[in-house]
## 1
Amino acid sequence: GQQLNQSPQSMFIQEGEDVSMNCTSSSIFNTWLWYKQDPGEGPVLLIALYKAGELTSNGRLTAQFGITRKDSFLNISASIPSDVGIYFCAGTYSGNTPLVFGKGTRLSVIA
Amino acid sequence: EPEVTQTPSHQVTQMGQEVILRCVPISNHLYFYWYRQILGQKVEFLVSFYNNEISEKSEIFDDQFSVERPDGSNFTLKIRSTKLEDSAMYFCASSEGQQYGYTFGSGTRLTVV
């Protein structure tokens, strides 16, 4: 099946720092999504991207749908302790296929 | 904010027993999904359901698994004869369309002993 390569696997950052993580695919994707998962909870949608080149913000979060349609990044500015969690990229490569997930980036914020 | 509701939140079962995991998707959503997440690993697709039938399933979704929409609101996942390796978080999700963001429930933690 489709594989998404997400990096980095984990990050330890100081509170107030900016964070960047990305996802690549070997296939063209039509939709890129970024989710956050807190311990014991389901993934929560942060940002959805539907067009190549699209840059979308949600508060301190910014994500872009790569021009090649094979990658996406998520930036978090001025991190705070509640940003801690696992961030997953996800995407679909056609309108008829279900969402596939990356392996996640575990973010730790040191106060 | 509409949400997907899953019950139970935790289930412990003996190997070989049948379990049914329940979900109430968002009412105006048309697509329903089950995903699972083994501890510390990524979220894996199991099955998608649209128009009262399975639209796609993964290789994980073998003959031990089945899904049903028994009425207008519930969406269930049945595991016929559980194995130790079925222990995982099971997430239900729903969406307006497959190309749109899915809304996930909080999950059912299944432990097979």
Note: The interface with chain A takes residues 4, 6, 33, 35, 41-45, 48, 55-56, 58, 91, 93, 97-107, 109 of chain B (CB under 8 Å).
## 2
Amino acid sequence: DIQMTQSPSTLSASVGDRVTITCRASQSITSWLAWYQQKPGKAPKLLISHASSLESGVPSRFSGSKSGTEFTLTISSLQPDDFATYYCQQYYTYSTFGQGTKVEIK
Amino acid sequence: QLQLQESGPGLVKPSETLSLTCTVSGGSISSSNSYWGWIRRPPGKGLEWFGTIYYTGSPYYNPSLKSRITIPLDTSKNQFSLRLSSVTDADTAVYYCARGVGGYGNFDYWGQGILVTVSS
């Protein structure tokens, strides 16, 4: 099984901060990685697919990158609407999600 | 606009079979090259992928759950379902249906989720 190690589990930040969330895969998944945002009581929202492809309608302050088996979600300037939990998902072999990163107000 | 809605019992007894249905509107589950999946989130935990069904009926199941799950299609009602057998309290979770992008792909449209509690 491919394991996805996501860090940190919680992140405290202020509006305007640059925020970085990391997911490390236990083996190569090439670029088969997605990022989701989930708010309480809501369904997850797909932000990025194929490691760095921004979904239609997602603000450009969100970006994704890859270095080997390490993947990063960056929010360039945190906005009030961005406080949520973020998940990565590999879909190279079967599908596995990371444990999530809660972005909370500092 | 594609919409998905989960339905089913909110309470299931241990050892019984959990059955949920996802009704799709604004699109057809029989559309060529379409995939439909189930994901859950146990309380206080992360997301877990159950499985995905291709519009032809070919399934892609999570190997750790494969012996307990089926995902049937009902094209006449534009619905797909989840059947999870022999449930325990570890199966208590919010269950989501979603449209998949590939058999093991990401999910671009989601239902709102339904809480299922396993308890006697």
Note: Chain B has a mean pLDDT of 95.
